[in-house]
Amino acid sequence: FRRVLFRSGGHVDVIDPAGSPVLFAGVAITYLVFSVIWIALARGVPKGFDLQLSLQVAADLMLLALLMHAAGGPRSGVGLLLVAAVGGASVISTALRSAFTAAIATLFVLGDAVLQTSRVGWADFGQLTPAAMLGGACFAIGLLVNRLAIRLEAQEALAESGAVPPSMGAWGPLALFWLVGLLLTWRAFRH
What we know:
Elements: H1 2-7, H2 21-44, H3 49-71, H4 80-91, H5 95-120, H6 128-161, H7 166-190
Helix pairs in contact: 2-3, 3-4, 3-5, 4-5, 4-6, 5-6
């Protein structure tokens, strides 16, 4: 952090399209501190799950959007961390909250792209296309992961209810695919 600060002369340009190493280092350290705090709170506070989830997701999205901005915008690749954060939040939240999280992440990405584009001039729209693609990825991952989590919960409930014999749990579909493959191979060699 000191090396970055001295190299830049202590000057932090918050809207620099090329990125700001000092801002990046500061936000990265802040994100690390918040992560440690969230881990400590997750172990000690069993109540208030919805509030804690909302605060964690909001902090994740804001700090990751700042990291993306400090790295140079959506083209830097740091914005993919927003997609991972949206996916992680979607595993343990409702479909509506997953869509809302994806929308907030998309607004952060598009806002940064517009800011970067206005800074360098409106003739260069190079930040807007990656931002739009990243926003679409946020929605796709958020909603897909949420649907998969819901299906997984239903499968777990079915397995715990005893409706499916334990022996069929993992080996049933595998045996069925093996038999179908064997049948298709036998027919192919017969002709």
